[in-house]
Every structure is written in structure tokens, then in C-alpha cells.
Amino acid sequence: MKQKILALAVVFSLVLILTACGSQETPPPNENVTADNEPITIRFTTWRQEDVEMWGRILVEFDKLDTNVMVEYAPVVDTEYDSVLKTNLQSGTADEVIFVRSWDAGRALFDAGYLEPITEEMVPNINDFASAQLASWQTEDGKIYGVPGNWVAYGVLYNKDIFDDLGITPPATTDDLFAVCSTLKENGIIPIAGGSKDPWTLEHMLSDHFLPIFYDGEVGHQKLLSGEFLPTDSEFIDHLDFLLKVRNECWPDGFEGMGYSDTQQLFVSGLAGMFMAGSWEIGVFEGLNPELHMGYSPTPVLKEGDKRWLSITPAGAFGLNANLTPEKREAALVFINWLASPEGGKIQGDVLVGQFPSMPNTTPPDHPLATEWVAQQGDDGENLTIWWTFQTLNAQEPGAGTLSNESLQALMNGDMTSEEVAQHIFDGIVGWYDPWK
Amino acid sequence: MPLIKGHVYNISDGLCMKKSFRSLLPYILPALLIYTVFMAAPLFLSMQLSFYEWNGIGPKNFVGMENFRKLFSIEPWNIRFLNATKNNILLFLMVMFFQNIPAFLLAWLLHFKLKGRNIFRNIFFIPVTMSVIMVGYVAQLMFNPLWGSFNKLMEVVGLNFLSRPWLGQSETALFIVALVTAWQYIGIPLILFLSGLENIPKELTEAARIDGASELKILRYIYIPLLAPVFGIISILTFVGDFTAFEIIFAMEGSIAGPNYATDVFGTLFYRTSFGFMGSSQAQMGLGAAIAVCMFVIIGGAVLFWQWYDNLILKNLA
């Protein structure tokens, strides 16, 4: 009898523990109150964990507006962002404002019904955004599911002090680039801080960056998407040969073991002369080494007089969670509208140096390097070209991302030739991308 | 099974009387409940998911055996799968060699109860308690080609040919990962072997020493045969541990398990396939579930095989 009571007690207490763990957290009492001027807290989730401090400053500006909306910046580290977001969306615990990835990665969220389409009623200036920015978060029938936040571009960052000491100027053409590299090498400086350990750096900072100068920027990009131009064409292979030449003449020894943060360290510590950079690095490098004197130089072109394309991608957009209570939705829209306004855009551009705001009618950022970089797009954005591995060619696996990652690393490590890489990329995508057939 | 007065029951009587089993139930039930909810149910759900195609948030599409077909016969997935199998086997063999054999030899040295042996035993065990991610990250810093301490040390000693980008070359990357994980976990087989050695009856070794046997002979003829069951347990633990290895490779090479998939094992293949990679590679959770099912079959099969073999040994049939 005693045993039976003991057994029952054990099972009962266990059930109690399980139900206690399983119950949902009830929100604190002063949230979701609809009375006027009671603060509503919303959360904004993004993969930019590196920008915590900067967004803190941006949100201080938002608070000055004295709305009843309190915003919490809730980032998740880049590599885990997508899986955490998906889990949260499915369990209904996702944040109110979601930073949506560009192109196909973000489209999946909309197709699954988790993002509300943005109309002029909700965000009045949505149609003033540049079409190149909206394209990344727009369906074929014109539905917009994200308010473009910022875009990033590629270029060359160089160490001004080293260049001044040696009396050299940043390269204008690719021939200049190799001449500068050999001068730097003779003087014991690593010409370009680069490495092949993190293959995404090869996809982004090398291939996405330099292919435009070989296939004539956006003209070539559209041909690539329509199938008129294929990876097996000579211009693509030429750009791969160019990357090999960069590796041979400009990269440090032991590059196979250098990852992204290693190359960043090389540049900020003054051991390397140049860095093939995404514009977001301005803020990052200044944070790592405030004493560093950096200069920006546009991507070298093949021949003097070639059009100087600016290789970019829209980076992220502010998406509205489709499953919100009316109060939260209104609060989220207040925040999004401020972000989309010229004033909001200016503040974001000034604080997040190098992540150029997509908002229309925004005055250029205060930072000289950022201003120079943005100006490269031309007065009407006519020099802009989208990264070839990002738009459309990544919709299914094996996509341009995976294929370029693995084959470019093999190229740099000497395991594949340029022709093999081109063939590998073609073979992987043609399997599911009809225009290339 | 009749109750015999005065007989002391033990396991070899095949004890399984109904009355005893029922009284055991309340003690088993809580753990069984937790196990079912958190381990058995997800396992079955994973198996179910492997017959679907799913990107993590959209609708699930039933595709039958398509995922398994991909893993075994369609490029590039079958290449990745075979590569992961090969790397796992290599990792297992390397860890067996670099972890378990030195663990045994160290246990043998420690069992002599020399001065300071407790200190050494504790020192060898401390890495086991460290976080895998931290160990992996520090190892990655150590083997960095430009400022890593390992390469600098090799240059100082004059062994320049040993100063190279270890983690960036496909020939050497897995080897380094195996060394790091062997270093970290050497404490566990060490403790198991040590307790095994200390449980060997002193009379055996004393008799051997009186008969004039050297320590090496004692090692070879007494210790090694008697420790065979311990070695069996350690082997199967190493097998399971290495075939589910993920964090150490994630820490040292990232989930892309470079260079050129040289360090790609089932764990990293599963993670990368299921969750995609940094927005540039799409999530395929159904295919990932199929990989997980294959892992389960391989590891479960090996454990069952070992249990059957161990049972044979127990019955003196092998």
C-alpha cells in the first residue's frame, strides 16, 4: 500500500512539473493596453548582431519623437537568424518587425504567409522608393512585402598611411592593381588581405565584386538571367583567371587558412595594404581600429575609360509580421513609417556607416567615405548592378550560392581549374533554371 | 520461476518476476515519459519528415522516397553523403588511434601510483569539462597561418616544413580536427581504463612479478586481455561520439566544413542541409531528416552489432 502511494506521488509531482514547464509565459500586465498613451513595446529582429550599439543610438532618436511605441532591438547571430526566425514564425512567437533577407531567401517568408504586403495606405511613401531597391522584395504581380532598409556595395578600401609612405595611388585599372601589389610586396606589406578559408568571402568579395567589370555590369547581369550569357562563356572564365592572378600576386602566404575575421584583422592592424571590401566594413573597421586611416577606391576596371559599375545588393528590408493584434500592428507601422521617412533614413545612414539607407529623399550620410562610395552609383543609380549570385539564381538547391562557395574555394586551393569551375556552376543551375537550357 | 528458500537471487537467474516488475514501474515511468516525449517522439517525427520536402516555413510536400534517392544516387547529394561517410570513418579511426591508445598507455603509467599521479589524472581530465566551442575556437587561433602559436613554434625550432595553413588544406584539416577532439576527450577513456586497471586483482600481478615477469610482459599478457571489455565499451562510445560529432567541426571550420568539404561529417552535412547557410543556401529540412534517419540506422546498427558481439563473448562463444 505504501509503495502504491509513493508511486502515485512520484507520478503526480512529475505531471505537475511537466505542465508547469509547458504553459505559455503570460505577458507583463502593462503591455497590449489600448488606453491612450500607454506604451506598447514591439521587437525588431535582425541578423545584424554587430550593430547592437549603433541601433541603440538610432532608437534613442526614435524615442525623441514621443510616440507611445517602445522598440526593442532583438538581433540573432547571422548564421542562426534564419532557423530561429522560422521556428518563431511557426510557433507564433515571432517579433513584430522582421528584417527580411533580400531576394529568394526573403521571398520564402512571404510565400508562406508570414509577411503582410505593404500598401500605400500603410506606408505612404512606399512607391517613392527606387525600383531597383523594391525589386528585391517585390513579387511578379507587384506585391511589396518589405520596406527596403539598406543596401551595401563593393569597392576597395586601402590603408592611406601605407600608400602615402610609398608614394603610390590607389589602382584605377586592373593593370594598376597588379603594379600596386608588386610595389607593396617589395616593401614587405601584404598587398591584399584575402584568404580562402571562408568560401562566402570568395563568392561575395571576389566574384560578385569583379564579375561586373568583365561582363559589363547590369547589362551582363540581365543577359546572365535570361540565358544569353552563361558561366561557360569566356568572360566568366576570364574573371576566374583574374581571381587566380589576384591570389598569386596579391594574397598572403598561407591564405588557405585565413578566414574572414583573420583578413579583417590583417587590414586593421596595418599589415596589409588593401581590402576587397563590402561597404559595411567602414563601420566595422573604424570600431576595430579607430587609428586606421582608410581610403575608398572604386573597383578597378579592365581598361581606362570603361564604365565604373558599382556592384551592390539590397541587404535587408523591414517586414511586417502578418499575425499581429491590431494594437501591435499599428505600433509596428508607426515604427516602420519612421524608418522609411527621409529623417529616419538619414539617421540610419549616419549611424550605420556603409549600410546605405534605401529611403527616398534622404540627404547623403555624414561620413566622407560613405558619401564617396554612394556617389559611385551615379546621379540616377545608372551604375548599379546586382550581385550575380543573389538574384533568382539562388531560388533552389544547388543554387549559385552553394555552387560558387564550393567551386571558388576549390579554385583558390588549386583543386579545380577555371573551366571546371565554370562548368560546375553551369551544371548545377541548369538542372532547375529553365532560361539556361 | 519458483521461489527457492534460502537462494540468493542474482541476474544470472534470469530474474524477471511479474511482481517485481510492477513494483519497478513507478521508478521507470517518469524517465520513460521524458524519454518518449523528448527523444522517441522527435525521432519518429524526423523519420516521418524524411518523406516530405520542406523549407522550414512553407507547406510540406510529400515526396516519398525521393530524399533517400537523392542521398544515394543523385548528384551532388550522393557525393556529399559518401564524402561525409568517408570523413566520419576517417575521423573515427584517427580518434581511436590518437585518443584511445594514448589513453590506455597513460592509464597504465598512472596506475603505478607514482608521486603526483592524482594531479596528472586531474590535469588530463580537465579538457573534458571545457566547452567544445571554446576549445575549437582556441585551436583555430593556434593553427592560424599568420599569427598562430603552432606555426611560430615550428619556425622557432627550425621545422619550417611543419609551418603551414593546416586548417586550410584539405589533406590536413580533418587530421587537425581529430587531434583536437582527441586531446579534449582523452580524459574519459583514461578514467575508464584506470578504473579497469585498478580492478584487476592484485594477486594476478603479484604472482606474475614473483615469477619474474617484466612490467611490459604484465601489460601484454595480463592487462590487455583483461581490459578487452573496457576497450569494447570505449570503442562503441567513441564510435557514437564521432559519428554524431558536430560542434568541434562547427567551431573550427564552420558549418560549411571546408576546405572543400574535407571536414564534412554527418553532423555538419545534416545541419547545413536542414538550415541552409547564411541566406545563400536554401533550407531543405526533408532532406536533412533523411540524413538524420541514415545516421540513426548506421549508428544504431553499429551499436546493435556490438551488443550482439558482446553478448557472444559473454557466453564464451567468440
Short description:
Chain A is α/β, with parallel strands linked by helices and 437 residues long.
Characterize the structure shown.
The complex is a heterodimer of chains A (437) and B (318). Chain A is 46% helix and 14% strand. With 437 residues, chain A is α/β, with parallel strands linked by helices. In chain A, strands 1, 2, 3, 4, 5, 6, 7, 8, 9 and 10 form a 10-stranded mixed beta sheet that branches. In chain A, α8 (199-215) packs across α16 (400-412) and α10 (234-250) packs across α17. The longest helix of chain A has 21 residues, at 2-22. Chain B is an all-alpha fold and 318 residues long. Helices cover 68% and strands 1% of the residues of chain B. A two-stranded antiparallel ribbon of chain B has the order 1-2. In chain B, α2 (66-73) crosses α14 (285-314) and α3 (77-110) crosses α8 (187-198). The mean pLDDT of chain B is 87. At the A-B interface, α1, α3, α4, α8 and α16 of A face α1 of B.
Taking the sheet with the most strands of chain A, its summary is: 10 strands, mixed
- Oligomeric state of shown chains: heterodimer
Low confidence ranges of chain A: 22-34
Total beta-strand segments of chain B: 2
- Give the C-alpha Rg of chain B: 24 Å
Instruction: Provide the β-strand percentage band of chain B.
Output: under 5%
Reading the helices and strands of chain B in chain order gives HEEHHHHHHHHHHHHH
What are the key terms here?
heterodimer; A: 437 residues; alpha/beta; ten-stranded mixed beta sheet; 17 helices; 10 strands; globular; B: 318 residues; mainly alpha; two-stranded antiparallel ribbon; 14 helices; 2 strands; 68% helix; flat
